[in-house]
Design brief:
Elements (H helix, E strand, L loop, with lengths): L2 H25 L16 H22 L7 H16 L1 H4 L4 E2 L3 H15 L8 H14 L3 H27 L3 H11 L13 H7 L1 H13 L3 H17 L1 H17 L13 H15 L3 H14 L8 H12 L3 H34 L7 H22 L7 H25 L5 H25 L14 E2 L1 H11 L8 E4 L3 H9 L9 E2 L21 E6 H10 L11 H9 L3 E6 L3 E6 L13
Parallel strand pairs: 3-4, 3-5
Antiparallel strand pairs: 1-2, 5-7, 6-7
Amino acid sequence: MSRARHLELLTLLGTGLLILAVAVVSAVPSATKYEISIYGALPSYFWVSIVGALFVGGLVILLSAAEPADTTWQPALALMILSNLVLFLMPFLRGYQMYGREDPMSHLGYIRDFVVTGEIGANIYPPAHVLAVTVSDATGLDWMTVVMVLSPVFSLLYYGAMFYLLRTVFDSRREMLFGIPFVMLPVLRFAHLGFRPFALSIMLIPFSLYLLFKSDQSATPATRTAFVIVLFAQTFYHPLTALFVIGVFVLYRGSNHVPSMGGPFPTTKNLFSLSVALFAVWYTQYAGILLRFKRIYTTLFGVDQGEPPVAAYQQTIQESSPALIDILRVILFKYGVEFMLFGLGFTFTVAAAALVWKGRYVPTPHLGMFTGTVVVFSFGGLLFLVSDLIVPPNRPFQIAKIGAIILVGQLLYVGWIKIDWSERRIGRTVGFWPTAVVVLLLLASLSTFSVYKSPLSSERNPQVTEMELEGSAWLMGHGEATENLDRFGITFHRHHDYRNGVQTSDNFDEGTPPSHFNYTTRQYLGSSYDSDHYLTITRKGRITYPELFPGYRDRWRYTPGDFDRLERDQTVNRLYDNGDYTQYLVNATANDGATASPN
């Protein structure tokens, strides 16, 4: 049987795995209540099918790269893109009302503000919200549906731009094909999910780079015009991404001055200046941006020091004393993709430097830029991890990953071309291909199982249910409930943003009920309050500790027994319950002379 026939059969196998995954999604009933993990909501063979389809598609492309005239890589590429699309549409296919409990809900509020007032106002992310309104008006879809599908659509733009970016950067067919399987993996993880301007802006970076390099190769008016338009969109989508892109542009210009780099000097000097000017003109008018820069400045220079993320991790470990296996699991699914990509990116950097030293390799300025991006933004992310700089470390890590994932393919290509294999065909069979297969399989698996937040990384699924929306609407219909409100498993000001807009003046006075509802020291919850309080408990809150930390019951803030006792508490009245959202009213007795009673 010919090599081409083998590749066709592999592609059919991958297609079968994808069809199986789609069939499983169609057969499994949609979510009716909150589920803490989307991975646990579907059978394991569904996720194996998705990983298998991605892996088989990538493997076919790699094998096709070794055959000069083979075209099987084209349907394999379509297989990988469709597999990613199914993966990213899972919240929509599961029937979630909304994916993203925090920022996405507030961004829906910004959309409401824009529609009601017709003005941008203090909104510093207007393009994303204007786009959502435009798509909603054009299609007739409601805002929640639009924002649920916009991210996967931007992901398709990201993958298309990555493909054309590789075609532009690498001259040879083989060099390009070695890179495609890796850039088509979901390594940006939750950036492909949820409606967040930063995530949407990240998806535009490969398109910006493609047009930048295309402008250098053929500076036609059409290419330059497209680049300027994308540059405007990139700048206005998110201020931080604009700064990051400016940094990448600087790295590109710097790589052209390195003597060992080959390639022409870039002709887009004026467009770099334009990007800086756009950022300065647009964002310096917002006081919020200036205050954030001030916060970063004071943190860096020791005037004002907050708690960095790594300190919070250390404190959690000290307080809970988790098992080593649990620590490693969380690290693996929280930062495993980053560690693996950066490790491979630095491996390429070292290998390329050694080959350049021996005069056997001449990298292009494009590769110099990608290498610099990995170095600068991976170490920059570590700075954000150990310092309280407002921005979470995953944001600079996202930029580093875009550079690193391109270097992974280049690393394999350099290994294929430059290593002097003994008995080349046998050496590649027992040395090169097993390495390539393991790298591809690990990245496909790890990126797929860390796309969604889940107990694997000790995080909760940010699903918003219809019953939570109904319950929050009921509460907002009782104005006095906003004054004394405790809740667990829901953040009401986000629901308020969604229903009333961000610019409205109403605010919830939210708090958290005492640990174990104070049943360890008092007989009734009401004796802990000196005024009546509303108390909201959601299904998310009830299952958080048993599902996330099953082996640490002594550290749980609330236990199932506490919730059962809440139902029998004479000072607690249930006002509303729809199965996923329960609203109580706690009658305060602290001023009635009630005595504290032990359990």
